[in-house]
Amino acid sequence: DTEVTQTPKHLVMGMTNKKSLKCEQHMGHRAMYWYKQKAKKPPELMFVYSYEKLSINESVPSRFSPECPNSSLLNLHLHALQPEDSALYLCASSQGLASEQYFGPGTRLTVT
Amino acid sequence: AQSVTQLGSHVSVSEGALVLLRCNYSSSVPPYLFWYVQYPNQGLQLLLKYTTGATLVKGINGFEAEFKKSETSFHLTKPSAHMSDAAEYFCAVSDWGGAAGNKLTFGGGTRVLVKP
Questions:
Q1: Residues in chain B whose beta carbon is closer than 8 A to a beta carbon of chain A?
Q2: What's the confidence (pLDDT) of residue A1?
Q3: What residues in chain A have per-residue pLDDT under 50?
């Protein structure tokens, strides 16, 4: 099973809302990632968790707050977003830090 | 720093014709290389990868890629295009982040259109 699941599939939120994106994998992978993808662009790395610890933060604004409650779950908490934050948010996981990454289907976020 | 260049943001092929997607990379260390496919409104699916060993790599859906160190290339091919191959394709190189983590650097993507 090489499945990464993400919920919700779609999310519309206002600029004052607080929401969370959820990602789950049951492959025993120890690295998990958040990416942001704008239309017609490649994914851009936001955060990397390795063994449930944040190892990379690509200078992401503090209105995005990641959380890794356990080895299977990864959350992205959203607060006070801007319309330009509208994008497809992809989660990925990998066995190790140098292994191939498996992506979830993404959450399509629209900020109004 | 790693970088990936995909030549051609759009490629149009006829059904049954050869698919060739070009990827060149720059890396200061031996790279891990990947091809991913993305269908509309979906996540990325791994097609194939090169780490070490055999330079001709076979992947899913009839795709293969050849690592050529001298040319710093990792071009993707499929002998006969199918309508279902219409999608966006991304080449990526992995940075040896060590304890800091694994960072994928993606090319700009190539959109493949398959004509009947």
A1: 32, 34, 36, 41-46, 49, 90, 94, 96-104, 106-109
A2: 60
A3: none
